[in-house]
Design brief:
two-stranded antiparallel sheet, globular
Length: about 230
């Protein structure tokens, strides 16, 4: 019986990892689509949002806390921090979703990308900028084959991770701005790592501005320009 339990736990971890990687790939493709089609006629056409039914109890905070360094007390402190970030996301960032019982996954990915790039580039994220980014990233809804096949628990965990990290990065950046260069560097390092690990994109190739996402032109040295 113990052997079966071990196999089931291992299979669950593998399925969770596969799903996370698949969703990350879909999010990455949506970002690329957003850049490629930024000037297309249908770029702002409304599409059905990708949503998931809200979990009765948070899932992602405990999962993320388990990977946190330190002892049990440190992991519990991290779990509570992550839960507060998730509450802030739902009550402040997406207060308009409070009464509908579902969470908007595309909006959470947009908030995560905006917070991360905003920290890396020192760009304040305005409501209009975030709305434009949400419109660009609704392409996630068109890449949802893995999403529809995945357990609801994994879908909710993915949303929660994007949402709480969006708040964590934004709040950390706001604090770091008044704490000096080392704090700023730490937040930027974390934001870069999250973008690369969770979505698999190189933030050096992206720019965030009033029109949302755009491809960043590679830097040209003075010697190259002269040559």
């Amino acid at each position: 019986m113990r052997s079966h339990a071990k196999h089931n736990a291992r299979d669950a971890r593998v399925a969770s990892t596969d799903f996370t990687e698949a969703l990350a790939s879909q999010a990455r493709q949506a970002i690329l689509d957003a850049i490629v089609h930024i000037c297309s006629a249908d770029a702002s056409a409304p599409r059905a949002a990708l949503t998931v039914e809200r979990a009765h109890a948070p899932i992602a905070p405990a999962r993320l806390a388990r990977a946190h360094p330190g002892d049990a007390a440190a992991r519990e402190e991290a779990r509570q921090l992550y839960e507060r970030c998730l509450v802030l996301y739902r009550s402040v960032v997406r207060a308009q979703d409070q009464g509908i019982g579902v969470d908007n996954v595309g909006a959470a990915v947009a908030a995560f990308v905006a917070a991360s790039l905003g920290a890396l580039q020192g760009t304040p994220v305005t409501p209009d900028m975030l709305l434009r980014l949400e419109q660009q990233l609704d392409g996630i809804a068109r890449l949802s084959s893995h999403w529809e096949a995945a357990p609801v628990l994994e879908r909710q965990a993915f949303f929660e991770q994007m949402a709480l990290l969006a708040v964590l990065i934004a709040e950390s950046w706001a604090q770091a701005a008044s704490q000096g260069g080392e704090a700023v560097a730490n937040v930027r390092r974390a934001a870069r790592g999250y973008l690369q690990q969770l979505i698999g994109i190189d933030p050096d190739h992206l720019a965030l501005g009033p029109d949302g996402l755009a491809a960043r032109a590679p830097a040209v040295s003075s010697s190259q320009a002269m040559g």
